[in-house]
Amino acid sequence: MAIDKIVLSKYLFQQGQNELSKNTPVSCGLAVSLFQDSVELLARTIAGKCGAKVRKSTPFPELWELMQNAAGNTYKKALPLRYKMSKLNEIRDSFKHSGNLPDVSQSHGFCDDAEEFLREATRRFFDKDFDTISLADLIEDSQVRQVIKEAETSMRRGDFEKCLKECAKADRIASGTVIRIAPELPGSFRHFSSLFDRPKSSFAGSWVHMLDSYLRGLRHFSVAVALKLNLPDHIKFHSMIPDAVRSADGSWQFNIKRPATKSDADFCLKYVTRYALAVQDQFEDLVNLPSAETQ
After folding, report:
1. Which of 12, 45, 85, 161 is surrounded by the fewest CB atoms within 10 Å?
2. Lowest mean pLDDT among 177-181, 194-198, 273-277
3. For residue 260, which phi and psi values (nearest 5 degrees)?
4. Contact criterion met (CB below 8 Å) for 182 and 226
């Protein structure tokens, strides 16, 4: 049960990072709230683990004192970063209860502080590396979950190309529902202009190329909006991962677009996890969307 709450804590933290990346005062306020929520969830989980006398109404700053006298805190371990987390809580309360927007640059500092707390508290009280806590555990589809875990393993081993391949596989598998609702253009469509003479210069050929780009862009936009994902991130992800095709025998073929880097693999791994969770969370809404045939 405790590990589930650590996973949720990490999920809240990464959601905060997503909001922070928008770099607007309101998104930074939401980010600070999510950072504080992730910290408080983990702090209360630790307090419960150690038998501290914590109630639902116990104020956040009091968790540090209660931990000192917790019956199960045999070695009197302290929750880390008390002052910084109290400051984070103050800024969060100011935003949530009074509508005061945090400074954008200051919010990035709170992100670093929250991450430091999560890493140190996870190590100190659970003897676990925060990086090994997998958000894939929140994914209900066992096949998608396993593929993303393989991508995480490849990332830790430094095999960034394999990580991107696993991300591409996870994307294809998780996209089953999405494809039924928003079908992809066949790969042959972009080559349709070859039926025309001088496709690069003819009006008809240029028109087909333009239509292909427009329809693909429109599909990316529709999927991102339907799943409440960041459109630039969605496009960036698909520009990085290799094209993945599954053969009838279950094997996979990949078309590598670019050399794999650590930053690319890290971005794609985090994004495909968010994508799989978004498909899972929005499934009912998606299946109820009218198809193009009913419009």
Report:
1. 161
2. 194-198
3. -80, 135
4. yes
Question: Tokens 């501290």 — which residue?
Answer: 52
**Predicted TM-score (pTM) above 0.85:** no
DSSP summary character for residue 295? -
Q: What is the distance between the alpha carbons of residues 148 and 164, in angstroms, rounded to a whole number?
A: 10
- As a whole number of angstroms, the distance between CA 187 and CA 215 comes to 12
**Closest by alpha carbon to 38, among 123, 148, 115?**
115
Domain range list for the chain: 2-133, 137-294
- Whether residue 54 has pLDDT greater than 70: yes
Matching CATH number, 2-133, of 2.40.128, 1.20.120, 3.30.1450, 1.10.287: 1.20.120
Length of the chain: 295
Cα-Cα-Cα-Cα dihedral sign, residues 16, 18, 19, 20:
positive
Q: What is the mean pLDDT of residues 162-180?
A: 88
Residue 276, amino acid: A
CA torsion 260-265-269-270 (nearest 10°) is -140
User: Which among 185, 187, 161 has a CA at the least distance from the CA of 245?
Assistant: 187
Distance of CA 205 to the CA centre of its chain: 39
CA distance 139 to 277: 6
* Cα distances (Å, whole numbers) of residue 9 to 12, 15, 24, 42, 126: 5, 10, 23, 6, 14
